[in-house]
Amino acid sequence: MATDNRINFWRRSAKVPGRYSKETKPKYNISKSKKTSSFHEFARSTNDAWDINDEDDEDFFAASIPTSVVQLSLHSTSSIQNQAGETDPVASHKQAPAKTQVQTPQDLQEDSECEHVNGKIVKSSSEAQLNTSSGGFTLQKQQSLPVRPIIPLVARISDQNASGAPPMTVREKSRLDKFKQLLTSPNTDLEELRKHSWSGVPREVRPITWRLLSGYLPANKERRELVLKRKREEYFGFIEQYYHSRTDEHYKDTYRQIHIDIPRTNPLIPLFQQPAVQEVFERILFIWAIRHPASGYVQGINDLVTPFFVVFLSEFVMEDVENFEMAGLPLDTQRNIEADSFWCMSKLLDGIQDNYTFAQPGIQNKVKALEELVSRIDEDIHNHFKRYEVEYLQFAFRWMNNLLMRELPLRCTIRLWDTYQAEAEGFSHFHLYVCAAFLIEWRKEILSMVDFQGLLMLLQNLPTIHWGNEEVGLLLAEAYRLKYMFADAPSHYKR
What we know:
By secondary structure, the protein is mainly alpha-helical. It is 52% helix and 0% strand. The chain is built from 23 helices and no strands. The chain has helices at 39-45, 54-62, 67-81, 89-92, 108-112, 115-118, 139-143, 170-184, 190-197, 206-213, 221-242, 252-261, 275-291, 306-313, 331-352, 361-377, 379-387, 393-401, 410-422, 426-441, 443-448, 452-460, 469-485. The protein is globular. Mean pLDDT is 75; it is low at 1-34, 48-103 and 105-164.
């Protein structure tokens, strides 16, 4: 779905977000965007491009798109489709900027030495099944649109320790032993666990580590099974109590929106197109929505389930998770994965719920904070946006709403969340510095764009498809440096 949000922010129909009505469909003017006078106006005229029509795309592509934008997308597409393993023409000329040496959490430095082994991206065998994905468009249709590059299933869910990857090094084995020692102690030292998790969690112990770091499980080992049993029973008690009400007048609009959005969650990954998996997501999101009436269901929350679901599923799957048939697992196992995903997602949202309440004040504050932070970090980029009238809200809204999940492959999101859960305020505070580091990462490309539409197209189509652990590790290290370099930032950065 990250590729769906490519066209326009300015939508006029309040009835169906992200779509023009046939009567009022405007002509495209790609020279300049009308500025919004308030967040409410922005929200009324903007959506995350969930419901974009193919016919709308064709009208847009008939317009005069800047040549530099077309070339950028063509470069990205050709590198993805290249079966000979040629270098990405966009990424090849972009060298990682020199990093100021800073002291980061324990193991960050030593792990960076072996990330070049772990960060390799292996061609996914599921790419051949791309035509069967139900994303509302076909592969043939995508290939006809050069500025909407194909995202193949080379963006694997599995990390470096999955089957088919190189065997663990001595250093990786040593790190895994450290985790196992912490996790098997009578009372897990959570601070020590966070310190080791900051540099990434080994696949074998990621499920239990995430449960502990999210606050879902207690540190005391003897109590864990009892807590798991009680919380899983409580979740399915909610299902029995509330799920039948999805057809009630009061909740039917909520359920309808969830039902529409679920097939659009990672549409190119076969796992998420299975009916059994979609039913799991529908139950999780509906129960969460009616238990949190202050926000209810908001588009984008569905994305936040996927990392937890994949991690907890990987506990029972040795091969690539993206092609696994969920129905092949025992029913009790499926139920446990569902319940654990619900509770961990709930813990995450407890810390950022103001992102999804009325008018989404949390996102407003974070976008404003990002603007102020970037103005201090890189005045050239900030002034470049001002010169071409690009508002931070136009691209950073999605970065905050979806926690960069539509900008990065899912495997990178999982690695990113290892660190977010290790940070005291990872999702609510550290994410701001990650977004700043992510923006600065594309400094050269941003400054080379000298028109409004070209800048927006670039910011919405950043070529991260081949990113792996090494790139995420560098991004996190830079965010860590920025966090402490700008430790005197205004207090509202933490909102």
